[in-house]
Structure formats: structure tokens, C-alpha cells
Design goal:
three-stranded antiparallel beta sheet; alpha+beta; Arc Repressor Mutant, subunit A; globular
Length: about 110
């Protein structure tokens, strides 16, 4: 699932303010995010057409990321989900502590 990753929502929140170069995005998530985790998250979001990557000419070439129109249409729902999660921290902690189940509904 594309939105399930640990860094997905922080990346989308950072990009909601506007396009960011890779190093700016990494700094916005520091010190917690590792470059490898950020790169994997960005690749997953690009594959889902939620984030667009743009290469800027230069030496060395720069890369920036921005939210797609599809992702921008998702932002109000993500904000509502974040608000809900903030008002239900005990449930979130219980779910995080529970062992993962592979069976549907169980």
C-alpha cells in the first residue's frame, strides 16, 4: 500500500508547501529519515503518480519533487485522517503494538 510507509505522510506534508530539491526534502525530515528510506518512499510515491520528479540541468544536475494534481486532491482527506489519528492516540498505540495479522479481518 502506497500510503502505509513510515515516511509517506511526512514527505507529502513537506511537499504540500511546494516543490523541494532532494537535499531540502532530506533536511526537512532530519534527523530521523535516512536517505535510503527517503529514496524508497519517493520511488513508491512516483510509481503511484502522487509525486513528480523533475531533473534540473546543471553540474551536477539537481532533482526536485512536487505533488501531482492527484495527490493535491488527496490532501484534505489526509489532513482529516491526521486529525483523527491525533485525537485517538491510544488506539494508534494499541494498533502499533499489536502483532501484524496476515489473515483478512483477523
Amino acid at each position: 500500500m502506497t500510503l502505509a510507509g513510515k515516511w509517506t505522510l511526512p514527505v507529502l506534508r513537506a511537499l504540500a508547501a511546494g516543490p523541494l530539491r532532494h537535499n531540502e526534502l532530506a533536511r526537512a525530515l532530519e534527523p530521523a529519515a535516512r536517505v535510503r528510506a527517503l529514496d524508497a518512499t519517493l520511488r513508491r510515491l512516483q510509481a503511484a503518480d502522487l509525486v513528480a520528479r523533475e531533473v534540473h540541468p546543471g553540474s551536477p544536475p539537481g532533482v526536485s519533487y512536487r505533488l501531482t494534481a492527484l495527490c493535491r486532491s488527496l490532501l484534505p482527506y489526509l489532513a482529516a485522517l491526521s486529525k483523527w489519528a491525533a485525537s485517538n492516540p491510544r488506539w494508534i498505540r494499541r494498533q502499533s503494538a499489536a502483532p501484524a495479522s496476515t489473515a483478512p479481518g483477523g
